[in-house]
Amino acid sequence: MLPKLLMPLVGILLFLAVWNGVSKSIDTSLGQFPGPAQVWEQSIVLVSEHNAQREKAEAFYERQEVRNAKRLAQDESYVPKIREFTGAPTFFDQILTSLYTVMVGFFIASVIAVPAGILCGLSKSAYAAMNPLIQIFKPVSPLAWLPLVTMVVSALYVSNDPMFSKSFITSAVTVSLCCLWPTLVNTAVGVSNIDSDLVNVSKVLRLTPLRHVQKIVLPASIPMIFTGLRLSLGIGWMVLIAAEMLAQNPGLGKFVWDEFQNGSSESLARIMVAVITIGIIGFMLDRLMLAVQRFASWDKNSVLR
Question: Which of 63, 64, 158, 228 could cysteine-pair with 186, CB 3.0–4.6 Å?
Answer without folding.
Answer: 228
